[in-house]
Amino acid sequence: MRSLFGLTMLSILALAGCAKEEAPPEAVPVEVPPKTVSEIVGEYSAALQPLFAGAQAGSGFAYGAADPIISQFTTLRSQNSNPKEINEPAASAQIEEQVANHVKIAKDAEEWYALDGLLKLHATLNPTSQRYQPLRRKTDLMMERPLVKCTGFATIDKDDLMAFLDVMDPKTSQITSVRVREGEEFYPDAEGKSILRLVKVIGAQSGLELEYMRLPGETWEIPGPENR
């Protein structure tokens, strides 16, 4: 009986040993390869597409609209940071080229709010660059240029033509109504210095030419009330 019991225990221990030896090896984590340059550029371009579209003439890109786009891009870029993604620097270099192309588009189209965002983006990608310093100054001033709408005209004493204008601060949206003659300066700043001038009435009251006096010689045209 003892002999049989001993054999039985040896068999159990042998089977337990075999079961232990046959246990599958531990799974080895699969290392995810780094993203390619094209993959990262695709992610960045998709995130920046609203800002790139805002550079086009007549886009109507709004004041402050660039900030959340840049914030999203910055977050995305941190997720692709080195050394995890070794191709991130090359991808950022390609995006910097795209930004430079859209800076030119926005400048030519005078889409100042989009241009502001593109210049901020360029500074994020290349903090030490001085490439756009003069354009940065002009953009800052143009973003502060009031929005002007002509609401009507009135003739006083036969030849004395007066234009009625609504002038809106782009930052506060506060509207000031003024009456202005050709050649007159108007809309004073905090120091009491007028920053706008009515250069002339165009044609048969079809529009007006205005000068932004913070940038002498910088003029633009707005439609008259019949042509809006």
Protein model, in words:
This protein is an alpha+beta fold. 43% of the residues lie in helices and 22% in strands. A hairpin with a 6-residue loop joins strand 2 and strand 3. Helix 2 runs antiparallel to helix 3, helix 2 packs parallel to helix 4 and helix 3 runs parallel beside helix 5. The longest helix is centred in the middle third of the chain and has 22 residues. The model has no long low-confidence stretch (mean pLDDT 90).
Q: Determine the fraction of residues in helical runs and give it as a percent range.
A: 40-55%
Task: Note the main sheet.
Answer: 4 strands, antiparallel
Q: What does the overall shape look like?
A: elongated
Overall pLDDT confidence: 90
Task: Supply the key terms.
single chain, 228 residues, alpha+beta, four-stranded antiparallel β-sheet, three-stranded antiparallel β-sheet, elongated
List the helices and strands and how they pair.
Elements: H1 2-21, H2 37-54, H3 66-79, H4 88-109, H5 112-125, H6 133-143, E1 147-156, E2 160-168, E3 175-181, E4 185-188, E5 194-202, E6 207-212, E7 218-223
Q: What's the gist of this structure?
A:
The chain is α+β, with helices and mostly antiparallel strands. The chain is 43% helix and 22% strand. The chain has a 4-stranded antiparallel β-sheet with strand order 4-5-6-7, with no helix packed on it. A 3-stranded antiparallel β-sheet has the order 1-2-3, with no helix packed on it.
